[in-house]
Each structure stands twice: as C-alpha cells, then as structure tokens.
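INPUT
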Amino acid sequence: MSAGTLYDKVWEQHRVAELPGGSTQLFIGLHLIHEVTSPQAFAALRDLGLGVRHPERTVATVDHIVPTTSQARPFADSLAEQMLTTLERNCGEHGIPLHGLGSGRQGIVHVIAPELGLTQPGMTVACGDSHTSTHGAFGAIAFGIGTSQVRDVLASQSLSMNKLNVRRIWVDGQLQSGVYAKDLVLHIIRSLGVKGGVGFAYEFAGPAIDGFSMEERMTLCNMAIEGGARCGYVNPDATTFAYLQGRPFAPPAGLAWERAVAWWSSLSSGADAVFDDEVRFDAAQIAPTVTWGITPGQGIAVDEAVPTPDQLHADERPIAEEAYRYMDLRPGMPIVGLPVDVCFIGSCTNGRLSDLRAAAAVARGRQVAAGIRAFVVPGSEQVARAAEAEGLDQLFRAAGFEWREPGCSMCLAMNPDRLEGREISASSSNRNFKGRQGSASGRTLLMSPAMVAAAAVSGHVADVRKLLETPASRSLSPNPEAVLSAACPP
Amino acid sequence: MTSPSFPFGPVRSVAGTAVALNGDDIDTDRIIPARFLKCVTFEGLGEQVFADDRSERAGAHPLDRPEHRGARILLVNRNFGCGSSREHAPQALMRWGIRAVVGESFAEIFFGNCLALGIPCLQGSHDQIRALQALVEAQPATVFRLEVDTAGLHSDGGAAWPLELGPGPSQMLRSGQWDATGQLVAHDQELRDTAERLPYLNGFASA
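OUTPUT
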C-alpha cells in the first residue's frame, strides 16, 4: 500500500470513521452540484426527511443543459427549463449558493470552481460528474460520484469510500511546440489503456508537470477518469499558490494565506513516499495525438496510421473492429487528411483561456474551410469575458468560427449543440464514445484545441505543428495585443 | 415489461434468467444516452436503456429478444459502465428489470452506483464469463440463482460458477446497509470533530 503520498495524507485528514462493511467514511470538503445529477438526490433527501448538513460547503452552477446561443429564460426546451428551475428551487430551499446564468460566475462546474478559488489543495472534492478529477490539479482528492452519493454528501457531508492504490505517472522532459497537455493525457491513456487506472489514483509528477500551468494540469487531471482512474492529482507548488492568490474564495492575504500555504505544502508527496506502481513517460517524445476510434484509448500520433489488427493486442481487437465499422475507417489509413464536418473548441477539458489562446494562435489570419461548422464555447462567463477583453472573440469570428455562450455544449449534447447523422467532429472534449455528441451515428475525433483549429482551417485532420511553422497569409486580428498573447500563450 | 420491486433491505440472492451483452468498455453513454438525462426523476428510464444500440439492431438486441424478457441477471465483459458517472445507467438497467450484474470487470463509479441501489456486481474470469454468455445464448431459459454470501452462481441444470465479490460490498448487501445514508448521518459527533480539525473549514485560524 502507498504511504506518505498526498493521497494518503489527505485521506487521513478527512477520515471520519470506519464503516461496518470495511469502507471508510470520508469527509467531503467541497461539494459541487449541477442540474443533471442533483434533482433526484434532493428528492431522496426530502423522502428521508433529511436536510443539507453543510449548505455552505456545496456550490451549484448550471452547465450541461444550457443553450450556447441564446441563454434567455425560459429556455426553448421545456425539459431543460424544468431542470434549471428545479436546481434553483432546491438551492433556494436549502441555502446553497448558485452561480447562475448572467451572474458573471456561471460556467462548466470544473471551470468555475478553480477560477473562483473554491478548489484548493488538500481538499476532498466530490461532484456528480466523472470529470471532477479535474480539481486534482490543485492537489485535491477529487472524484465523480453518482446521485445516491450526492444525496449522501448533502445529508452528511461525507461518503462511504474505499481507499485507492496510488500510481505515480512521472513525466520527464518538456512538450515540444504544437504539443499540449491534451496530447500528453491522450498519449498516457493510449499507453495504459482505458481500464489501466481502475483501482488507482494517478499522481502526475516530474519535470514536465512541474513546468505545467494550472490550466494544463487541469486538462491532464480531467482525463484521468478516461484512463479508468477515478482521481488524478498534482502536488501543489508555487504555480498552484500563485494561481490561487487573490481569487474570491481563496484564503485572504495575511496570516490566513501564510498558514494555508504552509498546510498545503505539508501535504505534497514526500521524497520517501511509497507508491503502489510507477510509470514513466518522456514528454519530448510525444506528438500531437488524435483518437481514431470509439474509446479515448484509441489514439494515435497525428502522423501515424490507423492501427491494423495485427498491431494490436488480441484483447483490443474486438473493440478495434467495432471502431473501424462505426468510424468507417480502414486499418492502415493515415489520419491526416481525414475530412471533418464539425469543429468544437470547449468543454471542461479544454474550455479555458489558455486553450482558446492556443486555438486562436492557429486560427489567426486563416479561414474555416468551406462547409465546416466550427464553434468556440468558453468554459465560463469569466473565461468568455477575459477572452473578449483580448479580442479573441473577434479573431475567431473573423476566421469563420461561431463565438458562443458558456456551457458543456457539444461535449455531451444535452443541449441544442449536437452532431447530425454521421457527421464527424474534431473535438477538444474528452469522450469519443458512440453517440456521445448527440447523434446515434455521429463520430468524434478527440484532439487538442490547437489541433481542432488546425482541422477547422484545413477542412480535415491536420498536423498543427506544420501550421504553426508557416505563418498565416494575413492577419485578421483587430487587436495587436491579442495577436501577441495568442501567439505566446504563457 | 414487468419489473419486480426495487431492492429493499438485505440482498442475499438474485434468481432469474440472464441476458448477455458482449463487448469490453461498454460506457454509460451507451447504457443511457445523454438526451434521456433531461429529467428530474429516474422514472421511465427502463424503456430507454441502450436506446441507440437497440434502435441500431432493430429488435435483434439481446434486451429486445423475447427469450430474454424478464431477465434479472446481466452478463458483461470487461470495464462495463465506464465513462460518465451518471447513476441513470444502473437506474435504467434496474428499471428494465436487472437485479445483478456479472462480468469480467466494472468501472468503479458504476460499481459504486449499483451498490448504492442494492444491485450486486460480481466478477468472474474471462473464461467463466464467456462460457456463461455462450450458455445463455444457447439456452436462454436457464434459470440462475446468485448467492451474495458465497458469491456463487448456480444454474437450474446443476452447474455452479464461483465468482468474486469483495467482503465490504458483500457485507453491505447482506446486512441491508448498502444504502449508506443512515450510517453516515449517525456519526454526528465524528463529523463535527473532523470538520473542526480541517484547517480550511476554520479559515486557517490556527497553524
């Protein structure tokens, strides 16, 4: 068993009691809720005659069902309107803060909690959404839960949990130009498999991770669940503290801040920490990565070909065969040049400011290819306003992208944004499952936001490194500073 | 579709016919596509379980074949229930009539969601599961009895398959405490003590 890791220390601090079945009652420091997985939990609470134990430790927003064109109420979709009304009523009844549409703080739950400073190192974070692993970027232990568990957290601010093993994923080196955190995580999942992480928490560490911004770390941890790991985390460091300082819900400057930093620092996995497993990668060896199949593990470097069955382990062949048929791809064909219909930049994986800047650096001075539907959906109202202040909205519009309002959008198609028929999308989201983007026969290619922008302006899957090497023919940016910041993401 | 009452109290055994769904990595988006999550109750999800897969196979999907009507045990392969944490997935299976899942392996959140509904998920080896799936496809009327206590699956033909179920989930199911809320709420003092010692809940007032 692991010892001395951040996971072990945070687990110990939040242990409430041992339960008869051998599981542990774990205190949940931050509970995030949204409109999809909470209504039945509140109903169950009412049936049990229970209240919300710590309404101040639950925070709500609305993201999955909101339209990204017009967000005027009532929504055209009466079911979506009913879900939001239900969330508003439940939050109102129980005194739970709700960051609603137009509040300036609404957005995808995994985007807003970090940017508001709600997510902090050393916390346990739970949310009825599997991408809660995102918050591990701060050195929190964060995981997705089902609706019965949402009910349990509301009622008791705790959960019955079993401790995971800890696997350290050590990443040496540095990503090359045109290669992003998304490529790293797609590469890791490709290597370890979509079930490789079952039973594990992933600790991401090493020089490459140390050099990552918080937004890059969030992209990485976000997709831990796609590799089967319910949570992924990065030890908190100076980058973490600098990001948090001054955010609305972060500890205030002064003694509280100093004590917070001291406590957070004490939680990092020590030099003598023991891991249940360790794997190493070299960031410098990783190329822009694209999925060709129907699981996030079916990825290849952009300059590779779709694998042939004999290149795959016997266990992987049945699902590869299913993927060839569903995706209508031939084994051995190159992925570069594959035409796409829709290009989607956004989601809890890649809907943050640095993601939009990276895509803008590619879109700048170029035009979306004819016949392609391309749109950019900021992850939150704050991301949207910050991007607009830099002129990114105008840059994208000038290049032929639609600029939308914040929400989950086409990542999961619980709102009007969806694929039609057999359309194929280049998507910066996290899942390429059959039917995921709203059409039962729709197809998804996962990639980084810069790669999505490259696909949009090329009309097909393209190697973003080549576009970054070749300057665009003309600059369409209305704002010289935006050009600079878009070209040089911090 | 007839569905027995939902699990309540101790879950010691599940009896009935079985239905096999072949394939690894069947995700919760396939079990219940996102458009059906636009609801504020779980009612009605039983009819929508595997909606897109079933529509694609136009009546030939195992869940639509008459010989599997009323099946209580679902036989699956590896990493079943991966992806989204939506409890709508086990809810949809439960409302279709499933009361136990037997497979090679399960995604963690799905396993926990099933447990929270009183639905045991038992693991078997690759060979065991393939044999069971083949048996059920050849002889769909076979009636099974799954014993939570021994983690054994028995057929009315006298065959038995030893499966695996961790001691924790097994104990929770047998005692009826698979629904954890009561236990969690009961630890009022322990919850207070934990909240008091967590620095971030106290404004980092002490070092």
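end of record. Chain B touches chain A through 65 residues (CB under 8 Å).
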